[in-house]
Amino acid sequence: MGKAQNSFFERTSGDVTLCLLPGWASDNGKLSDAGSPYNYDTHVPLLFWGAGIKNQKIMRPIDMCDLAPTISSLVGIAPPLAATGGTIVELHNK
Which residues of 59-83 are buried (b: 16+ CB within 10 A; e: fewer)? Predict the structure, then answer.
């Protein structure tokens, strides 16, 4: 449930959060609303493209919290102060 806990922001999140069991339909009839913390909703392809990015497949899991530090590193700026992830180091191996 760490992903659900990490998505909480005191000023804008509600007082109650419901996490349905995997595979349960929400009230809109969808099995997923692209925002659940379960693997079937968060295991998606991630593509980087541009100068200095070599053609490769990284098969290890990459967490969403790694994106801000990685993009910051690629463009040469400091990561956000609240960033908790790490840089995807494979993108820097040229």
Answer: eeeeeeebbbbbeebbeeeebeeeb
